[in-house]
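Typical record was shown:
=====
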Amino acid sequence: MSADFTELDYRETPLGELILRRRRIRSLGGLEVYEVKLGAAFLMSSLFHEVEVALANLGLAGMEAQGLDVVVGGLGLGYTAVATLEHPGVRSLIVVEALEGVVEWHRQGLVPLGPQLTADPRCRFVLGDFFALAAMGEGFDAETPGRLFDAVLLDIDHSPRNLLHPGNGAFYTEDGLAGLAARIRPGGVFALWSDDPPDDLFTGTLDRVFASTAVHIVRFQNPLLERESASTIYVARKAPG
């Protein structure tokens, strides 16, 4: 599969080298694809973003109320954030991103969805560590300490076991998830993307913290590997008030 590469941005981060690149895949009709790498890890590609969209759609499914306040953990190329804003009931969206470069890509229009997100008055970027903010009393919104949300959608680590940083592991414990649940309104939702198959132990942990948990397998075609791929989305819901 031949391709032309352009490196759009490169910078050092505490997690490793962060690279944004664009490539044109000739065998796919010259399709232009944006890709992100962090250290040795391939994080995301605009070539397949079905799972990022599904994270928002599955997480917000059935939430028909107006005035929904949502947090997205991990900005990436912006697909989960844009899909969230397409739900008519969403009043506000906070996107928490630890890497300043990723936020700058969107603000500078280096990635296709950047202009759409930065132009939407409902959307606000928060530069910070999602996991640290989830554990702090002030929560995700420094402007309104202790603020509660209707949904928290998380797409940062590869899975609850395959972490970008070992320090993230405490979040996926019963205590860590209970701390997050305290940031969610009664009847609200926590949804998580995982690149691993369904994990019964992690589902059990969610069940001990939330009132109900649903596990979804999202399948999609991966032209780079020339086969079907699959990811898992967990949707855990708090009991109504």
User: Anything to note?
Assistant: The two ends are 54 Å apart (CA to CA).
